[in-house]
Amino acid sequence: MTVSDVRTDLGAEEVVERTPWPAAILGLIARYPLGAAGALVVVAMIFAAVFADVIAPYDPEANAYEYMFTAPGGQYWLGADDFGRDIFSRIIYGARTALFVGFVAAFVGATGGLVLGVASAYFGGWFDLIIQRVMDVIMAFPLIILALAVISVLGPGIDKVIIAITIPFIPQCARVVRSSALAIREIPYIDAARACGFSHARIILRHMVPNVMAPFLIMITAFVGQAILLEATLSYLGLGVQEPVPAWGLMLKSGAEEYAESAPWIPIFPGIAISLAVFGFNLFGDALRDALDPKLRAQ
Amino acid sequence: MSVQQALPPGGPPRGSAETIQKGDVLLDVRDLKMYFPVTEGIVFRRTVAVVKAVDGISFQIRKGETLGLVGESGCGKTTTGRCILQLERPTSGEIIFEGQNLNDLDARALRPLRRKIQVIFQDPYSSLNPRMKTGDIVAEPMYVHGIEPDAKARERRVEELFSVCGLSVKMIDRYPHEMSGGQRQRVGIARALSLNPEFIICDEAVSALDVSIQAQVINLLEDLREEFGLTYLFIAHDLSVVRHLCHRVAVMYLGKMVELADCDELYDNPLHPYTRALLAAVPVPDPAIEAKREHQTVKGEVPSPMNPPSGCVFHPRCPLAVESCGRKIPEFREVKPGHWVACTET
User: Among A42, A114, B116, B295, which residue carries the largest CB count within 10 Å?
Assistant: First the structure.
């Protein structure tokens, strides 16, 4: 067979079929029912955060002293707190705070870890050794202790909370990404890129990073849940978001301390919101991990 | 370990002698050594052993020539290729390409030369970035080296390369996983050609393909050689493929070169016992003859390159070995014009 023969019979080509997307989504729901439930919570939360102005019946920061401690009912669906503020509206706006902190901290932390992890695997040697030992030092502290330490240095506030939550995420992501990147580094297309004389930055960003996206995405979803919980914890301890900004941890704090018995709706509903959000993101993250893992997908 | 300091000049290439002029050396490898240290300890690394993947080999490749490099798995043929590509920095030796020793150049100085030396890998499944469209895979080297700075012109050149390599232009927008193994290997070839190289290392470039596709790709490689005046180092373990494609053949065993000769000379008149055993292992495409044929197999296993045998590395398995083989490293000598062998007993 000569080359010209070969050229001609390449016209007829099998067409790769793609499933239409509504069917693909239904298929995913059938395969990962828990993940779909998690996704529902995530979507509902994002919806609440984006359209908080429209959904919330009251101003979340407006005090109404004549309605203090109103029990849940027709006027205040989830009751009113010790300043007469509508708890439902505060939870809706609280989703905005939680998601903002969650997404920014998760994205920045995971991206920092991604770049460090891939660079560490790519360069290897002393560079890898030093980066990994620094990561070990950061990881030696429990998440909450490290966040507390950062807050006590920087002071409270929503921007400081994000920094405090981001720092412990970086080594977690860097670890996972590095192990994937080490495997990818040995694949011949990286050798091909080196043989073509590409720069280190190009090889890392164009050839390695896109191929470690699966663990990166999984880390991000896991981090959002963790970050929401951590933000609530710091706010509960009075080190996070400050009054009167609506934040779930803060609402829980003011309610749980004094009114757990006399007005239980004040702590209960923010508590449910925190649990549901973290649960939703974790379920979604787990399903995403399963869906992106080819070994599990085959079963 | 300077037994191979004398340089094998190699015989006149088969077939197209008029196109390959004597003395027009493109690549000159001299006493190349690649030792990989085996280390222990995390912070304070100490070398506990050395793997001698390539242990002092020398050869030359002329412009327009195809040199076959054969040997069994682990004999160092791929490492030799990686050293020439500077994917590994050799322990010692010289790799002279166009008058420059590649081992002396730093990454920056090497960059312009990388254009001229390209590689085609064994596995078409892992040698293409799965996240990039095949057209981008072929276009990227041209963009980086500024060969076609204009996007439109680059696109045209990619289309041209696709059709040269026997790929339909429609496939430019495909991802590698949407293609067959043979098609992907053609993309790999198109990528190698995109930089207008002079020298291509084919590292088992057809071993992963099934036999009918192998024939197509081999014919493509031959056509490209003539069309673009390419020079190949063809690393393989399939001796029938090598015989078809190569002008000269070098045989490696355990990091050493044991025999180097013109293709026909090597196949018709193998001198080294290892080459003979290797050739005897090639199956005959006739079951009747194959069944009757006397099989001369090499006894034993390949020794560890961490602790190679003394003297001639092949002596523990050699049918011709005499007592002195275990002590004296055989010289790589020219027994006939263009026929080099590292054995004292033939």
Answer: A114
